[in-house]
Design goal:
The complex is a heterodimer of chains A (157) and B (111).
Chain A (H helix, E strand, L loop, with lengths): L12 H22 L24 E5 L4 E7 L9 E7 L11 E7 L3 H16 L3 E5 L5 E5 L5 E2 L5
Parallel strand pairs in A: 2-4
Antiparallel strand pairs in A: 1-2, 3-4, 5-6, 6-7
Chain B lengths: L9 E8 L4 E8 L3 E2 H14 L2 H6 L1 H12 L9 E6 L8 E8 L2 E3 L6
Parallel strand pairs in B: 3-6
Antiparallel strand pairs in B: 1-2, 1-5, 4-5
Helix pairs in contact in B: 1-3
Classes of the chains: A alpha+beta (157), B alpha+beta (111).
């Protein structure tokens, strides 16, 4: 059974701080597991101003070595079930620009299951592994290390 | 593509994206983008989409406009905001990227 976490994060300051801590802890575990060779730095990107506590993003990191970034957007609960999306984004209009950073963006309602999903996607990204994306038979996108069995991108509205 | 110039210290873009769509409205200015101009550019982007794509993103645009309204008098600094369509899994969303400088400042603070 799935459990949402810190659902009142937009209204409750404590829930917001606990959410931030959740993502920092998950991140530390992923980096520790993968290894620190790619010199990831966090935080990377803020919400625009210190007074803005909208969870957008709630966590960010960058590896100048890999030219890769991570951005996590925490969403308000919506419907029931797992709410987890991700996409890739280039910071520059031209991906070949020397300043370009390729981002993995995760947008989700925070839950124990969403955290587990995020970990699956963060691990290869943090390691610098090639990522494969392909639709499954139901048309849902899956992601994983290239050449490995892909993980389903869970999404239930 | 927007020019990169030392004179244009305030840069950014609004985007409407998905796995099959990428539309954007950018800015590159000497002075910070005002909240009013931000709303205008965002609406321009919204109006460029066909009815189906606009309808899908109706709530995303509302959240993006609300972010501009909530920026505060001094606006916001560099950030990247994503407003995904809830209940879909095709990357449909509206993005706000403040690349450099300030954006969404109140008009009377720019003169």
């Amino acid at each position: 059974m799935m459990t949402n976490l810190y659902e009142e994060f937009l209204e409750d300051h404590d829930h917001y701080e606990q959410s931030e801590q959740y993502w920092r802890t998950l991140w530390s575990e992923v980096v520790s597991e993968v290894g620190g060779g790619n010199k990831w730095q966090t935080p990377w990107m803020g919400t625009g101003a210190p007074h803005i506590k909208d969870g957008n993003p709630i966590f960010s990191a960058i590896s100048p070595v890999l030219r890769r970034g991570v951005r996590v957007i925490q969403l308000e609960p919506y419907g029931s079930g797992l709410d987890f999306q991700f996409w890739f984004e280039d910071t520059e209009p031209n991906p070949l620009d020397s300043e370009n950073v390729r981002e993995l963006v995760i947008a989700c309602v925070l839950s124990d299951l969403a955290g587990a999903c995020a970990r699956k996607y963060l691990e290869p990204w943090v390691a610098g592994s090639p990522i494969s994306m392909r639709p499954d038979q139901a048309g849902r996108l899956t992601v994983g290390r290239a050449g490995e069995r892909e993980h389903l991108i869970g999404h239930a509205a | 593509m927007m020019p990169k110039s030392v004179d244009l210290e305030h840069r950014g873009r609004f985007q409407a994206q998905s796995n099959y769509l990428e539309e954007s409205e950018g800015w590159a200015r000497k002075d910070p983008l005002t909240a009013t101009d931000g709303h205008h550019l965002l609406t321009t982007l919204e109006n460029r989409l066909d009815e189906k794509e606009r309808t899908i993103r109706e709530d995303c645009f509302k959240r993006a406009h609300r972010f501009i309204d909530n920026a505060g008098p001094g606006g916001v600094g560099p950030t990247s905001k994503g407003f995904p369509v809830r209940g879909r899994n095709d990357g449909s969303r509206v993005d706000i990227d403040v690349k450099k400088g300030l954006a969404f400042v109140r008009e009377d603070l720019t003169t």
